[in-house]
Write a structure and sequence with these properties.
This protein has 457 residues and is mainly α.
């Protein structure tokens, strides 16, 4: 990505990512479609409303994984092969060791977190607890898949992850139908289908990285742990991990508000969230692409290309975002009806989408700007922009709008938060201070790897 047209690189890299995001959302959509049509709205509410809890538990690792993606992209741009291998080894050591405590914390915290969310007692509570317990038991597959995808994306390879995810998605659909429709396992069947599919994807990706790319051999005695590269990944990724955690906590606070209105409102909000996730896919794909693009060009010392990539990505993402938001706004009710025949649930979800889509372009601007800053090694200000957007504005405004205007109007808090986040992120980019962070970020990429344990002398 350090030569040629930035727009072409970013679009070409984004297309497999977009397909992968579509498959990832299909993963989630199939879960909702199956339980919504074959189990009931309580199961639909359970599967949809518990996602934020699992996201909370894995938040720090998700941020760290992004940190490794940026470090790997900078090492790749600097053509530092030995440093690249050390970074991959270090990432696997952290992921494999970290999965154990995360699993234990997740299993222990299931019911307290559900109670904190004001989850209705009875079937919804029991289904939610069952679903989360199974998901946490197989969290290593989630860790592994995300880590593999981050490594490959740092190398500029968005196609291999797509292939592994496609296999996992087909397997997930088949297992959903087998476990839920065939065996009658309910939400437990959906959860088992998810963790089995993610484990398969993890193993396929690890095999590719070991045997095809030769970036590690995953033999414990020969894994090379580099504390300096871990520190750099933590420096870049830790603020993002904290941001994810705060996002999860804030979303849980809003979810508590939503859960107080009963299963129908919960289900409508949940389904609209699934559709929102589909609309967000192009933005997420462009954001990931420009992060890798920025990281590789920072590693190569090409800050002029970073600026060109910033402008090109904003233009393309804005056009696609406008088209998608118009379509979702126009077809909100038919999209909701795909998931449930319940008229009340459809009315709730379509109302959410009609209020959310007019402000969606702000989300594109916020994510693309933050991604360029992170790719340049600027960790703090994307965190500040996101924190101000969500924790300081969206969360309290949701409660304020609920009190002043009613439960249907809390969605407007999203647009207000995104607007403030855009102002902060764009001001930081325009200041030019990110260029100094980019120069500092080149040091780990251009320096030789440290002497480390394992098979190193």
């Amino acid at each position: 990505m350090t030569e040629g047209s930035p727009a072409r690189h970013i679009i070409r890299f984004s297309l497999p990512l977009l397909a992968g995001n579509a498959l990832q959302q299909l993963y989630n959509l199939v879960d909702s479609l199956v339980v919504g049509n074959f189990v009931g709205k309580e199961a639909l509410a359970a599967v949809g409303s518990t996602f934020i809890i699992s996201f909370l538990v894995v938040s720090l690792f998700s941020g760290l994984s992004l940190g490794f993606t940026i470090v790997i992209s900078q090492l790749f741009g600097a053509k530092n092969r030995e440093g690249l291998r050390s970074a991959v080894d270090t990432a696997y050591v952290v992921a494999l060791l970290g999965a154990v405590p995360v699993t234990l914390v997740g299993l222990v915290s299931v019911r307290p977190l559900l109670e904190l969310l004001n989850t209705p007692a009875g079937p919804t509570m029991e289904m939610s607890a069952t679903y989360l317990s199974v998901v946490f038991a197989g969290i290593i597959g989630t860790f592994g898949y995300n880590l593999n995808a981050g490594i490959l994306q740092g190398l500029g390879d968005s196609v291999s992850s797509l292939v592994f995810l496609a296999v996992a998605t087909v397997l997930n659909v088949a297992l959903d139908l087998l476990f839920v429709v065939g065996f009658g396992w309910g939400v437990a069947g959906v959860a088992w289908a998810t963790i089995i599919s993610q484990a398969v994807s993890f193993l396929l990706g690890a095999a590719w990285i070991v045997f095809r790319l030769g970036l590690t051999d995953l033999v414990p005695a020969r894994l090379r742990f580099d504390g300096r590269l871990l520190a750099e990944a933590v420096r870049i990724g830790f603020p993002t991990g904290i941001q994810f955690m705060l996002f999860s906590v804030g979303t849980m606070v809003i979810q508590r508000l939503i859960n107080g209105y009963g299963p129908a409102f919960m289900a409508g909000w949940s389904i609209s969230g699934r559709i929102d996730s589909l609309a967000f896919m192009p933005i997420a794909s462009f954001a990931t692409a420009v992060t890798t693009f920025t990281g590789q060009n920072v590693g190569a010392g090409r800050l002029d290309r970073v600026r060109r990539g910033f402008r090109a990505t904003h233009a393309v993402s804005a056009l696609v975002c406008l088209a998608v938001s118009v379509l979702v706004f126009a077809f909100a009710r038919p999209l909701m009806a795909l998931f449930t025949p319940d008229a009340e649930v459809i009315a709730v979800g379509s109302g959410v989408l009609h209020r959310l889509m007019p402000t969606y372009i702000l989300l594109s601007v916020l994510f693309i700007t933050n991604s360029v800053l992170r790719g340049a090694g600027e960790a703090l200000w994307p965190f500040v922009a996101s924190l101000a957007s969500f924790l300081f504005l969206r969360m309290p405004l949701a409660y304020l709008f609920d009190r002043l205007f009613g439960k249907g109007e809390i969605v407007w808090s999203f647009g207000v938060g995104w607007l403030v986040g855009c102002v902060i992120a764009l001001a930081r980019y325009r200041s030019g201070h990110w260029e100094r962070a980019a120069v500092e970020a080149r040091t780990p990429a251009s320096a030789p790897p440290a002497t480390i344990s394992g098979d190193s002398p």
